[in-house]
Design a protein that fits this description.
This protein is an alpha+beta fold. It has 23 helices and 11 strands. It has helices spanning 19-29, 48-62, 80-121, 127-131, 148-155, 180-189, 206-258, 279-289, 305-308, 322-325, 328-334, 345-359, 363-377, 390-407, 418-426, 444-478, 482-486, 492-510, 517-531, 533-540, 551-574, 577-599, 602-636, and strands at residues 7-15, 33-34, 137-142, 159-164, 170-175, 193-194, 262-263, 267-275, 295-299, 315-316, 646-647. The strands form 3 sheets. Strands 1, 2, 7, 8 and 9 form a 5-stranded antiparallel beta sheet that branches. A 4-stranded antiparallel beta sheet has the order 4-5-3-6. Strands 10-11 form a two-stranded parallel sheet. Helix 16 crosses helix 22 (577-599) and helix 22 packs antiparallel against helix 23 (602-636). The longest helix is centred in the middle third of the chain and has 53 residues, at 206-258. The protein is extended and about 125 Å long. It starts with 6 loop residues before the first strand and ends in a 12-residue tail after the last strand.
Length: 659
C-alpha cells in the first residue's frame, strides 16, 4: 500500500546578500514548509514592498482595471526600472484621483447651491422676509475679487458662496442660522461690504442663477475631462500596472518571510521540511544560485529532536495523479494521516465512486454529472467554486451511468435502454428489459432478488470495513506500536473476531453449518483479547503497571468494551443497508416520474420529465453525496483515524492572500 511521502528536514545557512534569491527559489518551487512558525512571529518591522503593492492595488481599483485571479506572468521580483515605474504610476494616479475628487466635490456644492437658489427664485416673498426665516441666513455684498478663493476656502462647507456678475466682485452667501456667526467672521476678515437690498426685492437675483448654471457647466466639463484622462491613462498603463502588481506581490511575500527568519548580521538560518525526492535537486540548484555560498544540512525525521520528543509532527504530503488527488480534500477535511502511515486517498476515491453509483443508478442523470464534470475540468463551466470538484463529477457520472445501464433507467424511463438490456441478457439466457431490475414486481422471485441486492450492499460494507481494519493494523506496526496493532477493536484480534463472526453467520445461513466447539472458542478468545486489549497492549509495549487502574476497574472496562465491540461491528455492518435503501428509493422516484409522464399530455409530460429529473439530480444527488461521505467518515475512517497528523503546507507565492 502507498504511504505518505517521505520527508526530510533541510537546514540552510544563507548569506544576507543571497537570502532574497533563495526565498524566491523556495517560493517558486512550492515544496518547502518552514519549520519555524513564521505566522506567529511579528517583529513589528514595516514591509515597504507590501505598502507599494497596496498602493498599486488602490491605483488599479481607482482606474477600474479588472483584477487578476492569479499570476499570469512568470514569477519574478521587481527590477530597478519596475520600482521607478511603480512610484511614477502611483504618484500620477493619486494626483488624478485627487483632482477628480476635488472636481466632484465642487460639482456637488455648485449643484446644491443652484438647487437652493432655484427653490427660492420664484418665491413671491421679499428679501427682508427671507432674512427672517428661522433656518436661513443670506448675505449679498462686495469683496475684492482676488479675495474670493481665500474666502471660499475659509468658509468651507459651512456656507454656499456664489459670485454675481461678470467682475466677480459681488457675492451671495447663504448659510444656516447656526453657522451665521462663524460665516460673518470670515466675511469680515475678507473686507466684505454688505449691499442694502430693497425691502420689496423679491426672489433670488437672476444673475446669481445664471452664474451658478455657468459654474456648474464649467465644473462638469472639468470633471468629464479628468475622467477621460483617467480612462486614457488606464488603457495606456493597464499591462504595466498588472505586471507591477504581480512582481510586488512576490516581493512583499519574500520581504515578509525574510523579516521573520532567524538571522545574525550577515547570515540567515532557514529550516524546513520538504519531500526527500527533491533534496538533491534543491541542493544542486541552491549551490548554483548562490555560487556555493549556502550551507545545506539534511536530517531524517528520527534525527530531529523536536520530532523524537513528540513536540513536532512531521508534515504529511499525499502524492497522486489528477484523478486520485481530487479526493484529497475529503481526507484533510476529516484530518491528516500520521506521517509514515498508509495513504487512504486511493481507497476513498474507489469507495466514494462505487457507493455513489450504486445509490444513484440512472444512465441519463449520470451523463449529466459526467458532462458537467468534463466542462468544469475544461474550465468551460463555473458553478460558484464547484469547478474544483470537476474530476469527482466525472467519476460519479461514470459510475451512475454504468449502474443506470444495469438497472435500465435513462432519465427515469425504463423503455429507452430496454433493447440494450435485452441484447445483453440474451447473451446469457432469457432476454429481460433490465439487467438488474430494482423495482419489486411482486412474487417471491422479486423479493428474493431485492434481498440479494441488500446482501450485496452489506458485502460492500464488509469490504470497506475490512480495508479500514487492515490499514489500521499496518499503520500501528509502521508507528512501532505492536500492542495496538495486535489487540483492540481495530487490531488483529478485533479484525479476526469480525471476520470469523461474518464467516460463521454465512456458514449457518447458506451451508447448513452446525456450530462447533472450535467456533465458540475462536469467537470467545478473539472477543476477550479485543475487549481486554488495553492491558495486553501495555504488556506487549512494556508499559507498567499492566492494569493501570487496578483489577476491578480493568474487569468493568472489559465488560463495557465487549458491548461496545459487538454493537459497533454490528452497526458498522448494518449501516450499509442504507446503500441498498437509497438505490431502491432512487428507483421508486424514477418509477413515479415515469408514471406521471405517462398519464400527462405530451407537453405536460415533457415538463414533468424535465422538472422531475432536475429535482432528482440536484436534491437526491446532494443527499446521496452526503450519505456517501457519512459512510466514509464513520465506517471507514473511524477504523484507522484514531489521531491526526500535520498537513504539509509549503511556502508558495499567492497573488493575494485569503484570510
Amino acid at each position: 500500500m502507498a504511504k505518505t511521502t517521505i520527508m526530510r528536514l533541510v537546514e540552510l545557512m544563507v548569506y544576507k546578500e543571497d537570502v532574497h534569491q533563495v526565498l524566491k527559489y523556495l517560493g517558486k518551487m512550492g515544496q518547502f514548509q518552514f519549520q519555524q512558525n513564521l505566522g506567529g512571529q511579528d517583529d513589528g518591522n514595516l514591509n515597504p514592498d507590501a505598502e507599494i503593492f497596496n498602493k498599486l492595488e488602490h491605483a488599479r481599483a481607482s482606474l477600474s482595471i479588472p483584477d487578476l485571479k492569479g499570476y499570469v506572468d512568470e514569477l519574478d521580483i521587481p527590477s530597478e526600472a519596475d520600482e521607478t515605474d511603480a512610484m511614477k504610476i502611483i504618484s500620477d494616479v493619486e494626483e488624478l484621483h485627487a483632482r477628480e475628487l476635488a472636481a466632484s466635490d465642487e460639482l456637488k456644492k455648485v449643484n446644491a447651491a443652484l438647487n437652493e437658489a432655484i427653490a427660492f427664485s420664484n418665491l413671491n416673498v421679499s428679501y427682508s422676509e427671507l432674512e427672517n426665516l428661522s433656518f436661513l441666513t443670506m448675505r449679498i455684498g462686495k469683496i475684492d475679487p482676488s479675495s474670493f478663493d481665500m474666502l471660499k476656502a475659509a468658509i468651507g462647507s459651512r456656507a454656499t458662496v456664489v459670485q454675481l456678475g461678470e467682475d466677480g466682485g459681488n457675492i451671495l452667501v447663504a448659510c444656516s442660522k447656526k453657522a451665521r456667526f462663524a460665516v460673518d467672521t470670515e466675511l469680515k476678515h475678507a473686507d466684505f461690504v454688505e449691499i442694502q437690498i430693497p425691502k420689496d426685492f423679491k426672489g433670488i437675483p437672476e444673475d446669481a442663477l445664471i452664474t451658478l448654471k455657468k459654474q456648474r457647466e464649467s465644473v462638469a466639463a472639468q470633471l468629464s475631462e479628468i475622467q477621460e484622462e483617467k480612462k486614457s491613462f488606464a488603457e495606456t498603463h493597464r499591462e504595466k500596472i498588472l505586471h507591477l502588481l504581480q512582481v510586488y506581490s512576490v516581493e512583499s511575500q519574500i520581504s515578509e518571510v525574510q523579516g521573520k527568519l532567524e538571522s545574525t548580521e550577515f547570515v540567515y538560518r532557514i529550516s524546513g521540511w520538504m519531500p526527500a525526492r527533491l533534496t538533491h535537486e534543491v541542493g544542486r540548484d541552491l549551490d548554483k544560485l548562490t555560487e556555493g555560498r549556502t550551507g545545506i544540512r539534511e536530517y531524517l525525521p528520527d534525527e530531529v529532536a523536536t520530532v523524537a520528543s513528540g513536540v513536532e509532527q512531521v508534515p504529511v504530503q499525499l502524492r497522486h495523479g489528477k484523478i486520485i488527488s481530487a479526493f484529497e480534500r475529503m481526507i484533510f477535511s476529516y484530518g491528516s494521516p500520521l506521517y509514515g502511515t498508509v495513504d487512504p486517498t486511493p481507497f476513498v476515491a474507489i469507495f466514494f465512486t462505487l457507493l455513489f453509483g450504486i445509490m444513484f443508478g440512472d444512465a441519463g442523470q449520470g451523463l449529466v454529472f459526467l458532462i458537467l464534470g468534463i466542462l468544469m475540468c475544461a474550465k468551460k463551466l463555473k458553478l460558484a467554486g464547484w469547478e474544483k470538484f470537476g474530476v469527482i463529477f466525472v467519476c460519479i457520472g461514470i459510475s451512475s451511468t454504468i449502474m443506470g445501464l444495469l438497472t435500465g433507467e435513462f432519465f427515469a424511463n425504463e423503455e429507452i435502454l430496454a433493447p440494450f438490456s435485452r441484447w445483453v441478457t440474451g447473451l446469457f439466457g432469457t432476454p429481460r428489459n433490465q439487467i438488474l431490475p430494482m423495482m419489486p414486481t411482486g412474487g417471491s422471485e422479486s423479493i428474493k432478488r431485492m434481498f440479494i441486492f441488500f446482501g450485496f450492499t452489506v458485502g460492500v460494507g464488509f469490504i470497506i470495513n475490512s480495508v479500514g481494519l487492515i490499514i489500521n493494523i499496518i499503520n500501528q506496526f509502521s508507528l512501532k506500536r505492536p500492542g495496538k496493532a495486535i489487540f483492540g477493536k481495530t487490531g488483529i484480534t478485533g479484525a479476526v473476531f469480525f471476520w470469523y463472526v461474518i464467516a460463521f453467520a454465512l456458514r449457518l445461513a447458506f451451508f447448513h453449518h452446525s456450530p462447533a466447539i472450535y467456533d465458540w472458542i475462536i469467537i470467545g478468545v478473539t472477543l476477550f483479547l479485543t475487549a481486554f486489549g488495553e492491558p495486553f497492549e501495555r504488556l506487549v509495549e512494556g508499559e507498567r503497571p499492566v492494569l493501570e487502574n487496578g483489577l476491578f476497574s480493568g474487569i468493568i472496562g472489559g465488560i463495557v468494551e465487549v458491548i461496545e465491540v459487538i454493537s459497533s461491528y454490528l452497526s458498522n455492518t448494518v449501516s450499509f443497508l442504507r446503500v441498498g435503501a437509497f438505490a431502491l428509493a432512487h428507483a421508486v422516484l424514477g418509477y413515479i416520474i415515469e408514471k406521471m409522464v405517462g398519464i400527462a399530455p405530451l407537453a405536460g409530460g415533457i415538463a414533468i420529465s424535465i422538472v422531475g429529473n432536475a429535482i432528482v439530480v440536484v436534491l437526491e444527488g446532494m443527499i446521496v453525496a452526503i450519505q456517501v461521505v457519512r459512510l466514509q467518515y464513520y465506517e471507514f475512517f473511524s477504523k484507522f483515524f484514531n489521531e491526526t497528523g500535520r498537513e504539509f503546507m509549503p511556502f508558495s507565492f499567492k497573488y493575494k492572500s485569503v484570510d
